[in-house]
Amino acid sequence: MHTQTHIARKHSPALLFMLGTMACTAPAKAQDTSLASTESGRGSPPAPAQTSNSTDTSEERWNFHAQTTYVYQHKDGFSAPYTGPQSLSTAPEDSYTWTFTMYMGARLWKGSEIYVNPEVVVGTPLSHLFGLASINNGEIQKNGGTHPRGYLARWYLRQSFNLGGDSVHVEDGPNQLAGNYDSRRFVVTLGKLTLTDIFEKNTYANDPRTQFLNWSMITHGAWDYAADARAYTIGGAGELYWDNWVLRVGRFMEPKEANGTTLNHRIWTYHGDNLEVEHDHKLGELPGLVRVMAFRNHSWAGNYLDAIAAAEGTGNPPDVTSVRKPSSKVGYGISFEQRLSRDVGLFLRASSANDRSEEYAFTEIDNVLSGGLSINGTHWKRPDDVFGIAYSTAGLNRQHREYLAAGGLGGFLGDGQLTRYGREQVLETYYNYHLYKGVQISPDLQLILNPGYNADRRGPVFIYGVRMHLEM
């Protein structure tokens, strides 16, 4: 069984702290209300299609931002013929998370930017984080707990080398100093971050603090991206921007064990490699883009068929953790986003991986298709509000299904049997209501069918939530 922390279900003073922060925080500027907002990926820098049209060309030497987000969710009870050791509980449950992050940035020399992000997190998941592959809250961490924990989420250096082309101005934001860049440039990033800071930075479905919450919506679900239990890793990436094209490559550390808290610093032996090509376009006057990604992970991981073979004749269920060895996993993803009008944006994603090897650092999804709409509130005279609705359908490869059917336990799944397989489906909708500058509240609803890919425990499962987000 994978290493996971079982978290006690009791509320903390996090909500009171967050509300106190709201009362004493004076936001420095208005939120960017365009559909192509520059905030995405937990405070990551903007993608090239999301730069500013402002005539301001000033450059910042340093900046400071902060955010705090509280998410509360309630799951209704549902009926099921049986429940296994790692099933989603059929009883009603409550869950919450609270995070606080500081974003500090500075220029050290020409073309350089350094960013440091201290962070605090607290929370408790549904069912000890078991029973779902499409996990309901993108803010939950695998090693979270009901006592606030502080840590250094990010520390990295970004160096840009201008190569000509048009001049592009990027506005101030979290982990982004206001500055000027060439449309043709090479950018090197070294340090600690999360891979969604650089790769698959979708405009409409990337940030669980302001957009969709479900893990199957916030990035490629089948992308088992290198990360520790908090979703951060260490490594380096290079990005070549050439007008409307971007090429990204990177290598980052894997954890020492699946879903573990400690990274393996032997990056030349165990690593996650990523390649992404992006093309920005316009249909008429409406912007859009396409990204194609490929990844290859090399880690100390078990093979599902090896685990089944090792358990034959023993009377015991297979255990993928008992057959670990150096293993590789390869996968791909394609992402499309397009403005349909000034107020409506569309996103579509598809990803797949050859998950003969165990899920290692993200979640138990082997293939997934997702898509949705983001609608600005201009038509109902709430131009700062956003309504989002999306759907995902996730599946497992044959080897993974056979392992769970034989009673094996994964990082998140394990009903004790899987006699009737069904794709795990999620419908999510949220409404991001801007109370005033820098303060947002978002009701959220998720409907999930076949939790854990088990049609015997079909549900439906209803999860009702509300999110409070503050930023400065």
Assembly level: single chain
Topology-level CATH name: Porin
Mean of residue pLDDT? 89
Elements, N to C (H/E): HEEEEEEEHEEEEHEEEEHEEE
Q: What is the name of the CATH class?
A: Mainly Beta
Termini Cα gap: 42 Å
What is the count of β-strands?
18
CATH architecture: Beta Barrel
| Domain module count | 1
State which percent range the strand residues make up: 35-45%
Class per helix and strand makeup:
mainly beta
Can you tell me the CATH superfamily? Carbohydrate-selective porin OprB
Poorly predicted spans: 1-50
Structure description:
- The chain has a single domain, classed as Porin (Beta Barrel).
- It is built from four helices and 18 strands.
- Residues 1-50 have low confidence and may be disordered.
- The strands form two sheets. It has a 16-stranded antiparallel β-barrel.
- 7% of the residues lie in helices and 44% in strands.
- The protein is globular.
- With 472 residues, it is mainly beta.
- Helix 3 (304-311) runs parallel beside helix 4 (398-405).
- The two termini are 42 Å apart.
- It has helices at residues 14-24, 215-218, 304-311, 398-405, and strands at residues 62-75, 93-106, 112-124, 149-162, 167-170, 179-182, 184-193, 233-242, 245-253, 271-283, 286-301, 325-339, 344-353, 367-377, 382-395, 424-436, 439-449, 461-471.
- Strand 14 and strand 15 (382-395) form a beta hairpin.
- One of its GO terms (cellular component) is membrane.
- This is Carbohydrate porin.
- Keywords: Signal.
- Pfam families: OprB.
- Residues 31-41 have a biased composition (Polar residues).
